[in-house]
């Protein structure tokens, strides 16, 4: 891989998030590091702390959270701005819209270049669908700020087309949310051993944030309807207690396991333990319709057939590669039928596994890294 020449260059990655659990951020940081640059991740935290993660310097800045998200954002912007100015990087990566104002403010004092990762359609983000004022505010922030960045990347071709047209800017570069290439299948029994799951059960696996619009209540309904199904939910989020209560109300809390939050590497280590990977994205707006969730490709790398919803970007992968089944995100009976087919038709399941192996050779981060490196070279 080509690397930068001359003195080592500094890169600041700013994100309102945690690099330890954000797979996309981890992959981008690792690629930039391999490109020969010194990478520092800057994010909010409960206290000031600094540590190293796979060669990346991580700086977490204490911010005021108890006064609400608006104050937290503003406080983080100020602290991230000053830290970045003192660091004087040659490149600043705004890893989400919420960090972009701080990145651009630092740009004008350090003459750094700014790469913006528009990894969601923020003007149509599902979490804000019922908060129009907030939605419009962040849409306006993106519309203003995006004209001052030096490069834009997205996680999907449809997003690149739409953002380029919406803001009348050069079409962003697409860098998909694909995980690192798995060179061996991994431990297929890791979840069975860890949670004492008998062989008679088929393990349905969900990994990611526990949020509305992810089909999580449907998955619990499926476990309640199919006696041979065991659901493992890897991740954490604001819905956890509600989901636990729902599982109890359905009398399946003995067949639904919540692992809690895991680091990115730990999560990938456990992924091969599932039998069917679930990515039921509900139709909460344009952002979800364009989604190509990284969990789907993490399942593929672990050679696990997938159950996804009929959102265009996901359905085309499943259809073209024959790696599972796509169902309407609000059609519970179709989901149950699809899971039963995986269980009752061994030849169909085996064919999906073999197709996952073929797809895994295409949908991996090492392929996306080539595009990112080419962009970094063009921006140098």
Low-confidence stretches: 1-7
The description of the largest β-sheet is: 8 strands, mixed
Q: How many strands in all?
A: 14
Mean pLDDT: 92
Portion of residues in beta strands equals: 15-25%
Question: Total helix count?
Answer: 15
Q: What share of residues is helical?
A: 40-55%
Question: What this model shows, in words?
Answer:
The protein is α/β, with parallel strands linked by helices and 380 residues long. It folds into 2 domains: 10-178 and 364-379, Rossmann fold (3-Layer(aba) Sandwich), CATH 3.40.50; 190-360, Rossmann fold (3-Layer(aba) Sandwich), CATH 3.40.50.2000. It contains 15 helices and 14 strands. The strands form 2 sheets. The protein has an 8-stranded mixed beta sheet, sandwiched between helices. Strands 11-10-9-12-13-14 form a 6-stranded parallel beta sheet, with helices on both faces. Helix 7 crosses helix 13 (332-344). The protein is globular and about 60 Å long.
Notable characteristics:
Rossmann fold; disordered N terminus; alpha/beta; 2 domains; six-stranded parallel beta sheet; 380 residues
Strand-helix topology:
Layout lengths: L9 E5 L8 H12 L3 E8 L3 E5 L2 E7 L6 H19 L3 E4 L5 H11 L2 E5 L14 H14 L5 E4 L2 H11 L5 E2 L15 H6 L6 E6 L8 H10 L3 E6 L5 H10 L6 E5 L3 H7 L5 E4 L6 H4 L4 H8 L4 E4 L2 H10 L2 E4 L4 H13 L1 H15 L4 H15 L1
Parallel strand pairs: 1-2, 1-5, 2-4, 5-6, 6-7, 7-8, 9-10, 9-12, 10-11, 12-13, 13-14
Antiparallel strand pairs: 3-4
Helix pairs in contact: 1-15, 2-3, 7-13
